[in-house]
Structure formats: structure tokens, C-alpha cells
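Re: [ENG-882] Designed sequences occasionally contain unexpected residues at chain ends

Forwarding the minimal case from QA. C-alpha cells:
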């Protein structure tokens, strides 16, 4: 009969700081004391554990991903070995957390089907990204705040990637005489070619019929080109007279900062782009 597994026996995998490990392995190649080999061997001897570490780690590689260490042994010993390793190679020492506003209506779009989008961002940047749990069961107060935790470089990269995952929605009012049919072959062709969703809202008492084009931030050129072609198709020579609108979600507490002193930031953007920018009335 097979001997029963020791209930005290366990193994644990955890990440360590890549830069710190590189420095340690470099020291070993230069034959200095307490390089990688020495350090892990001493921890193994002192704690009676087995440790697997990436001894062939490529020094100075482009990858920012923190590598894994694996420790096997008795539960208590593994904990002691991990504490000893982390006291020297802990990734958390320069860990930062960034909170960013992403409109709660776009959270599921950013997270992606089965969480695929956000898992990919976490893997590529080595960060942990958290969306507010309260939105699932709280109908009244939805939170826009998304937090990203990790190394400073990774956190900034994750922020950029999340921004790129946001949808870009452009809308425009159509002159009364124009017919709009989202299922027309031309509209369908533009949608498929530029990977856009096109929809039309019927006129109301206050507004004329509205066209809405939805694409993604990481594909801005396609959204612009597709929208221009759509307007040409719908309005012909009037296309250049139709104004296009988009909305950004910016937390009210950041409005003053965004506007700049005496609205200087907004004036600068308006001069450069010719776009009109309206902030909601603070009252």
C-alpha cells in the first residue's frame, strides 16, 4: 500500500520582485557572497524546505512580469521560508494603488465576456484590478471607481489599457428630410468594414432623429472614418454641416482641475481642435 501523504506537507507559489531577483542573480554570476544560489540554499538549509526559483531568468529583459518562486515542505517551514524570501524580494515595497473613474455603465464592456479583457490586462501588467462589488446589488448609488494595484510602471500601463477598452460613442442629429435605415446595405457595409455598431433614434418633440455610432477607443481612426462615410451616405453634400457629439464621464470633483486656471486648458483644446466643450452647470 502507498504511504499516506503527510497532511503537514504543502507547496506554495508566490511572486517576487523581478528587479530585486535580477540584482541577486547578477551578484551570483559575479561570484559575490549572498548571490541567488547562496541565498536560496541557505533558506533551504535553515528551514528544511525545497525551493524552485528561475535561476535562468534573463537579466534586463523587457518583461516587467514578476517571476514565481515555489517552496515545498512542512506547512510551518514553508511559511518561514516564504517570510525569509519576501523580506528580501517582496514586490509590495513599492506597490501603489491608483483609483480611476470609469462610468459604471461601461464596466461590463471593459471587463469583457467571461472577464477576458480585464484578465488579459492584469496578466500583461502584473497588476490587480478591482471593479466595485456594490454595483451588482445596489440599485441607487452606482460607483464609477476602479482601482489598480501594482508596481508604478504596471499601474500606468494598466490605466492606458483600460482607457483603450472603453467604447467610443459618437452621435449626431439628422436633418428632418433624411431617411435613416440601420439595415440598409450601405450602413451594414460601413458597420462591418469599420467594426462599428450603428443605430438611429426616432425624433421626439424636443429632438430630431439621432444617429449613434459605437466603436472602440483603441480603434479611433476606424470610428472616425466610418462615421464620415456614414454621414456622406446619409446627408450627401450636407455632411460637413452636421455636428458630432461625444460624452466623457469625469467625476465632478475633477472638473475644476480639468478646466485649468480660468479655463485655460479648455481654451487650449478648443483652439487646437475647433471642438466646443461643455461642462455641466455645477449647481
Amino acid at each position: 500500500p502507498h504511504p499516506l501523504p503527510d497532511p503537514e506537507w504543502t507547496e506554495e507559489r508566490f511572486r517576487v520582485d523581478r528587479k530585486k531577483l535580477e540584482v541577486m542573480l547578477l551578484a551570483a554570476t559575479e561570484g559575490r557572497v549572498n548571490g541567488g544560489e547562496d541565498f536560496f540554499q541557505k533558506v533551504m538549509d535553515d528551514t528544511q524546505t525545497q525551493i524552485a526559483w528561475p535561476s535562468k531568468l534573463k537579466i534586463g529583459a523587457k518583461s516587467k512580469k514578476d517571476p514565481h518562486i515555489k517552496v515545498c515542505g512542512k506547512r510551518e517551514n514553508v511559511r518561514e521560508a516564504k517570510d525569509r524570501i519576501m523580506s528580501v524580494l517582496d514586490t509590495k515595497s513599492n506597490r501603489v494603488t491608483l483609483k480611476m473613474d470609469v462610468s459604471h455603465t461601461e464596466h461590463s464592456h471593459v471587463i469583457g465576456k467571461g472577464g477576458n479583457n480585464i484578465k488579459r490586462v492584469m496578466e500583461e501588467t502584473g497588476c490587480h484590478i478591482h471593479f466595485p462589488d456594490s454595483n451588482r446589488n445596489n440599485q441607487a448609488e452606482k460607483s464609477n471607481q476602479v482601482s489598480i494595484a501594482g508596481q508604478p510602471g504596471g499601474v500606468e500601463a494598466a490605466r492606458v489599457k483600460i482607457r483603450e477598452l472603453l467604447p467610443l460613442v459618437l452621435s449626431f442629429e439628422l436633418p428632418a428630410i433624411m431617411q435613416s435605415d440601420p439595415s440598409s446595405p450601405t450602413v451594414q457595409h460601413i458597420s462591418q468594414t469599420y467594426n462599428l455598431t450603428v443605430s438611429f433614434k426616432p425624433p421626439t418633440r424636443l429632438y430630431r432623429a439621432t444617429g449613434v455610432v459605437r466603436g472602440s477607443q483603441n480603434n479611433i481612426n476606424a470610428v472616425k472614418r466610418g462615421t464620415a462615410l456614414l454621414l456622406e451616405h446619409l446627408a450627401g453634400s450636407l455632411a460637413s454641416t452636421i455636428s458630432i457629439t461625444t460624452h466623457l464621464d469625469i467625476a465632478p470633483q475633477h472638473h475644476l482641475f480639468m478646466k485649468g486656471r480660468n479655463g485655460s486648458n479648455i481654451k487650449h483644446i478648443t483652439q487646437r481642435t475647433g471642438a466646443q466643450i461643455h461642462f455641466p452647470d455645477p449647481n
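QA comment: On inspection the terminal residues look reasonable. The mean pLDDT is 86. Proposing we downgrade this to a documentation issue.
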